[in-house]
Design a protein that fits this description.
Strand order of the largest sheet: 2-3-1-4
Radius of gyration: 15 Å
Order of helices and strands: EHEEHE
Helix content: 25-40%
Number of strands: 4
Oligomer: single chain
Mean pLDDT: 88
Shape: globular
Distance between the termini: 25 Å
C-alpha cells in the first residue's frame, strides 16, 4: 500500500518539435524565449549535443499531435523537425476540481 507516498511519473516514448539547432547558446535561449512568449503553457527543452544546442517543445504521444504544432510554427521558425524521444507526463490541471 503506497498511500501517502508521493506520486511517481514514468516517462514514455513520444514526440517533440525541434524548432532551433545551432552552436550559439544565446541564440538557443532567444529562440526558446520567442516560443515561450507565444506558447506559455508548452514545455520547452534545451539540449546540448556537441557542438549544437537544440530547442524542442511539447510532450506529444502521437506524431499527428506534434505535426499540428510544427505547422503552427512554420511562419516563426525554419528547420523544423519532429523528434521521437522520451517525453514527460502532461501537467496536472490543479483547477480541475
Amino acid at each position: 500500500n503506497n498511500a501517502g507516498a508521493p506520486a511517481t511519473f514514468i516517462s514514455s516514448n513520444g514526440y517533440r518539435v525541434q524548432f532551433f539547432s545551432g552552436s550559439s547558446r544565446a541564440d538557443a535561449y532567444n529562440a526558446q524565449a520567442r516560443f515561450s512568449h507565444k506558447y506559455p503553457d508548452l514545455r520547452t527543452y534545451v539540449v546540448y549535443i556537441a557542438p549544437n544546442f537544440k530547442v524542442r517543445a511539447g510532450d506529444y504521444r502521437t506524431r499527428m499531435e506534434a505535426n499540428k504544432l510544427l505547422e503552427e510554427l512554420r511562419p516563426m521558425f525554419t528547420g523544423l523537425f519532429i523528434i521521437s524521444e522520451k517525453i514527460n507526463p502532461p501537467k496536472l490541471d490543479k483547477n480541475n476540481d
